[in-house]
Design brief:
The protein is mostly helical. It is 53% helix and 0% strand. The radius of gyration is 29 Å and the shape is elongated.
């Protein structure tokens, strides 16, 4: 589950606490602390190192060969 998915799950649980049926309110009340502890655990993990962006070498244009004034035929 991604961090965004976890945040959406918490948001849905909060909504159910306010507007859900009694069984939904009970289940949502139980899961919010679990969601919060998982979010805290993820926040405490070291962030993966992001590699520095490298510049790609530009390709040199191919020198023109032959007669360059002729246009391709349009086929008509």
């Amino acid at each position: 589950m991604t961090d965004a998915d976890l945040a959406a799950l918490r948001s849905n649980a909060e909504r159910l606490i306010e507007h859900g049926l009694p069984a939904q309110v009970a289940a949502a009340s139980e899961i919010i602390p679990v969601i919060d502890s998982e979010a805290a655990r993820r926040a405490s993990l070291p962030k993966p190192a992001v590699p520095a962006r490298t510049r790609t070498a530009r390709k040199k244009p191919v020198p023109a060969k032959g007669h360059q004034t002729a246009l391709p035929s349009s086929g008509a």
